[in-house]
Design a protein that fits this description.
The complex is a heterotrimer of chains A (about 300), B (about 375) and C (about 110). Chain A is α/β, with parallel strands linked by helices. Chain A has 2 domains: about 240 residues, Thiamin diphosphate (ThDP)-binding fold, Pyr/PP domains (Rossmann fold, 3-Layer(aba) Sandwich); about 30 residues. Helices cover about 35% and strands about 15% of the residues of chain A. Chain A is built from 10 helices and 8 strands. Chain B has about 375 residues and is α/β, with parallel strands linked by helices. Chain B folds into 2 domains: about 190 residues, Rossmann fold; about 110 residues, 3-Layer(aba) Sandwich (Rossmann fold). In chain B, strands 2, 3, 4, 5, 6, 7, 8 and 14 form an 8-stranded mixed β-sheet that branches. In chain B, strand 15, helix 12 and strand 16 form a beta-alpha-beta unit. Classes of the chains: A alpha/beta (about 300), B alpha/beta (about 375), C mainly beta (about 110). Strand 2 of chain A pairs parallel with strand 10 of chain B, so a sheet runs across the interface. The structure holds iron/sulfur cluster (3 copies).
Chain lengths: ~300, ~375, ~110
């Protein structure tokens, strides 16, 4: 039988996630039963399984609870300004196209204050993998209303319940041109990991929404119990419908959560279109940004 | 290092200031530009977007100026020299990520072709009213470098200077043009690439195991690692330690912020460039910058015809402000006359430096939409000389 | 109601055995691992860690099938499982200890798949 006293902190093996996170910054700041860490674990697992050269993988975050991911992953990590992770990542990708650039941030950051960048990066099919952790609320600033807060849910700035309509994010992404769109909850660890793995291998704008418990604010303000209770709720109410019409996957308060891969199509990405177009119009005069062995020369 | 010939359009040209700005950037090695159209700066990116695909550069027209500035900071972390170009309203939107660039110590260049403000103001007409915003526009304490050219030729030259300063001090460098300089067309001589001295991005030679992104070892700035080279570093807009990790303490804040300030403040004499004429023996010294410097010179000549002993200082570097020089001059003159196309911005700096010596600082304001009548400047000089 | 999820590759493998490792001081006592372990290997301990959370403890050591579900779902990177080598290839999965702290950037290893 194990008790804490019998568990030394130096174990004979290191945690398998250790090569992917900054162990010197653990424990992280996320609350007990917050799901962000699970999403990070799934992403790290997908990275490990991908066989990618992690030296070429960057992670860019904005501000907020999920914004801290860039600081916890042992990758080139950029913790930027509120809402600006996507344009920052755009610069990173265009400055060195061989990089695999991931944006890892929250709903408030990416589609609240950063919504304009989100829709335009999707429109351009910019070569970014965007992982959006959706907890339906502003966590770090104290539970304020978000663009994703379902109708009637209580937040600290909608104490009588939210009366603003929420974004349906898969629909938003798909209608703006994202070429890979999926939604999972952080309970779907295997499927989520698989989705990350798939998306890592695609080009263009890939969008994965992960529904994640915020126990400290969303669950507390709405009397939904702990993060574990929310995980149980996901278990009972997640409905897997691959290829579902994204117009029908909006999320109502404490209602079913449609999960699955909704869009997965090959469309020329921003960089592919740019290169092809310049090659066509400028011929041999065109000098692409040195990709230094990146996929453009594959 | 010498400039990459691919970006240098060697020859004698007849260019407006905006085009000269674009040519200067490309000659300086800029290979990433993100921008959003705004009068009167748009010609810069029009020039660049035409030429970039021929030299390995990438231009992207972003959805707004918030995005443009963020993309510039991101691209710079790949080691690519990066810039954006804008005017007043866009400059306001860029402030947040100019602060990020300052905090992350990201070399980059921001050009502001100033128009009349506030708000949408006078989109097609000149102003110089963003000078304090250039210094203080983003929140918190930080230092930037700002330059102000007076002609298309000088715009070309200062762009190279700006990119070099950005590399040396790892700061955003602001090039504070104005609509007149941007839209005036003059002779611009672009020298051969081998005559253009470039400071390249110096990448750290340390191995990833021992590299710390914000360790300075007594030097003014830390060594730079770019994304994708295996350093797996972290950088943040939060107050951070040598590892680039956020640390929320007043000790760390002091260390982090004071270094951001000191790397510029301790090198003011290396950074500042002034043009001076007949300052020795002058009773009154005119201090001006940008297009106003050219107008002011006529005012100076008019005043001299009337017997005034007038010197002239043109600020090429506006930030950091040349405190030491102005203080020294203040000891010997009766007054400074500061014409500028605003209701008093750089004059406040002159006044601050002149106060101890008891010299006056006389503003010759202009609301924007045009340049001063040199006679007004002359009158101010004569008035101050009495 | 008991919640648990079947590993995707459940059918592909001979029943392996695993051993659980817990980084007690990282644990925040969320209970996810206890809830979702398909073999009820874990329960929440009565003890506290330094931060005052109850970490899990192993109660059915022999039952662990090394499915690594606890590891995947733990938001705090505080628990993982290692294969108990039956002499087959599963042992390559990294239970070999690396010199602790010798290399700040250990080589990347494949994560174990159950
Ligand atoms: S406030 Fe909510 S989202 Fe933020 S760390 Fe805590 S539980 Fe997670
Ligand atoms: S590895 Fe699987 S069986 Fe073993 S303790 Fe973890 S969840 Fe339970
Ligand atoms: S899942 Fe992790 S944090 Fe939660 S109780 Fe188990 S070991 Fe602790």
């Amino acid at each position: 039988m194990s008790t804490p006293a019998e568990h030394p902190e130096v174990l004979p093996e290191e945690h398998p996630v250790a090569p992917y996170i900054r162990t010197d910054r653990m424990p992280h700041i996320w609350c007990p039963t917050c799901g962000i860490g699970t999403v990070v674990k799934c992403f790290a697992t997908a990275l490990a399984e991908s066989g990618l050269d992690l030296n070429k993988v960057s992670v860019v975050s904005g501000i907020g609870c999920t914004g801290r991911v860039a600081g916890y992953m042992k990758l080139d990590g950029f913790h930027t300004t509120h809402g600006r992770a996507i344009p920052f990542a755009t610069g990173l990708k265009l400055g060195r196209p061989e990089l695999l650039v991931t944006v890892f941030s929250g709903d408030g950051d990416l589609v609240g204050i950063g919504g304009n960048h989100f829709i335009h990066a999707a429109r351009r099919n910019m070569d970014l993998l965007v992982i959006l952790v959706n907890n339906f609320i502003y966590g770090m600033t104290g539970g304020q209303n978000a663009a994703t807060t379902p109708l009637t849910a209580k937040t600290s700035t909608m104490p009588y319940g939210n009366f603003e309509r929420a974004f349906n994010l898969p629909q938003l992404a798909a209608s703006c041109g994202a070429t890979y769109v999926a939604r999972w909850t952080c309970l779907h660890i295997r499927r989520l990991t698989k989705a990350f793995g798939e998306a890592l291998k695609r080009r263009g704008f890939r969008f994965i929404e992960v529904i994640t418990p915020c126990a400290t604010l969303y669950a507390r303000l709405n009397k939904l119990g702990s993060g574990l209770d929310l995980m149980r709720f996901y278990h009972d109410n997640a409905e897997i419908r691959h290829g579902a019409d994204t117009r029908e996957v909006g999320i109502a308060f404490q209602d079913r959560i449609v999960c699955g891969k909704f869009v997965d199509e090959e469309q020329p990405s921003f960089l592919e279109m740019m290169h092809e177009h310049y090659r066509k119009t400028l011929g041999s005069k065109y000098v692409p940004t040195p990709p230094e062995g990146g996929w453009l020369h594959e | 290092m010498k400039a990459d010939p691919a970006g240098v359009l060697t020859g004698v040209h007849y260019l407006d200031g905006d085009f000269a700005c674009g040519e200067g950037a490309m000659a300086a090695g800029c290979r990433f530009v993100a921008g959003y159209p705004i009068t009167p700066s748009t010609e810069v990116v029009e020039r660049i977007s035409r030429r970039f695909p021929l030299m390995g550069g990438t231009f992207i027209q972003m959805e707004d100026e918030l995005g443009s500035m963020a993309a510039v900071v991101g691209a710079s972390w790949t080691g690519t020299k990066s810039m954006t170009v804008t005017s007043g309203p866009g400059f306001s939107l860029m402030m947040e990520n100019i602060g990020l660039a300052a905090m992350m110590e990201t070399p980059c260049v921001v050009v502001n072709v100033q128009r009349g403000g506030p708000s949408t103001g006078l989109p097609t007409m000149v102003g110089q009213a963003d000078m304090m915003q250039a210094r203080w526009g983003s929140h918190g304490d930080y230092e930037v470098i700002a330059l102000s050219p007076q002609s298309p030729q000088e715009t070309f030259d200062l762009m190279i200077n700006a990119f070099n300063l950005a590399e040396v001090y790892r700061v955003p460098v602001l090039v504070m043009m104005d609509e007149c300089v941007g839209h005036m067309t003059e002779k611009v001589v672009i020298p051969p690439a081998e005559e253009i001295e470039i400071v390249p991005r110096t990448l750290t030679g340390q191995p990833p195991e021992s590299y710390l992104p914000y360790k300075v070892d007594g030097k003014p700035v830390p060594e730079f690692a770019r994304a994708g080279d295996g350093y797996r570093f972290h950088t943040t807009g939060l107050t951070h330690d040598e590892r680039g990790y956020p640390v929320m303490s007043k000790e760390c804040q002091e260390k982090c912020v004071s270094r951001l300030l000191d790397k510029v403040r301790r090198n003011v004499d290396n950074i500042v460039r002034l043009e001076e004429r007949e300052v020795d023996g002058a009773d009154v010294v005119v201090v001006a910058y940008g297009i106003t410097a050219r107008v002011a010179r006529i005012g100076v000549e008019l005043a001299k015809l009337q017997g005034a002993k007038v010197g002239f200082i043109r600020l090429i570097t506006v930030w950091p402000f040349p405190d030491r020089r102005i203080r020294a001059v203040a000891e010997k003159v009766r007054a400074f006359v500061v014409p500028e196309i605003n209701y008093g911005q750089m004059v406040l700096e002159v006044e601050r430096c002149a106060a101890k010596a008891g010299a006056d600082a006389v503003l010759v304001p202009h609301p924007g939409g045009g340049v001063h009548d040199p006679k007004r400047i002359c009158e101010a000089i004569l008035g101050a000389a009495k | 109601m008991k919640y648990w999820r079947k590993p995707l590759d459940f059918g592909d493998v001979k029943v392996p055995h695993g051993e659980v490792r817990i980084l007690v001081e990282r644990c925040k006592g969320c209970g996810f691992c206890v809830e979702y372990c398909p073999k009820d290997v874990l329960v929440m301990s009565e003890e506290f860690n330094k931060k005052g959370y109850h970490p899990p403890k192993v109660v059915k050591a022999g039952e662990c099938v090394n499915c690594n579900l606890c590891e995947m779902i733990c938001p705090d990177f505080a628990i993982f499982s290692v294969a108990v080598s039956d002499g087959d290839a599963a042992g390559a999965a990294g239970s070999s200890p690396e010199a602790a702290g010798a290399d700040p950037r250990p080589p990347e290893r494949e994560l174990r798949r159950a």
